[in-house]
Amino acid sequence: MVSNRQTLVKSIHNIFEKLAGAGFLLSIMSLFLLLSSDVDDMYEFANGISDFFPWVVGFSLFTYVIDYLVFKFLNNRNTIKIILYMAFGYLIFMVNPMNVFMLLMGVMGLICSLILYFGNRLAQSSNIFTYGFSIVVLIPLFIIINIDFTEKEGWKEVSSSSTFEATFDNFNGKHEIPIPLREGDTLTFYTTFNNENGGGHGLYMLNENDRKIGMKERNENELQYYADQSGVYRIVIIGDDVKGSFTVNWKIE
Fold first, then answer.
1. What sections of the protein cross the membrane (predicted)?
2. Predicted structure pTM score
3. pLDDT class for 38, splitting at 50, 70, 90?
4. Which position among 46, 147, 199, 236 has the lowest Cβ density within 10 Å, counted as fewest Cβ atoms?
5. What is the mean pLDDT of the segment spanning 35-64?
């Protein structure tokens, strides 16, 4: 019984060590984002971290597999472990078609895997480091990425079954337009954006699992998506301290 309890406690502590490595890497990413000239508000910061958070935490826990394989078959050689961390950190981005951007992302993944490895090593030698980065850092970051920091001033909207229009004095963040689709439906939508102050804007589309999905560009401001499964999809309009208005019209065939 005592042995089983000790094994359980050690296993839980090992999980916290892995999460500490993730917290260490995410804290460095957070510092980089905060110092970046491209990030000047909480929406951009939270959006930037949310893109990396699941990948970092997921890869950190996956390194259990690497550690086990090295321990079981390679006599726990740290050099081999580092090489495997780097390899998986690089290859995780190679699931997409090879291009220059993916190669650069692979290099970034390689560097991040090294930071993660050394974060794990530091966690193994310090309980303060372990629980500091796994709890004090990770939990606040998790809360932040689940808060919508969108700011809207003077926002007025009008919508129908196939149209959405909005005017605003300032729009910084995102606005989602839900559209239910059935499997086999083809959604075609048109967007016009009246930018009165030179602020930034853009759009993307999400499926029911909050994953960004690719769209086919038909003409200027005209995009199309073929639904491979039924669900409520969302067109997401984003603004960066922009004043003006936008209109989205769509049809389902």
1. 20-37, 52-71, 83-116, 128-147
2. 0.81
3. low
4. 147
5. 83
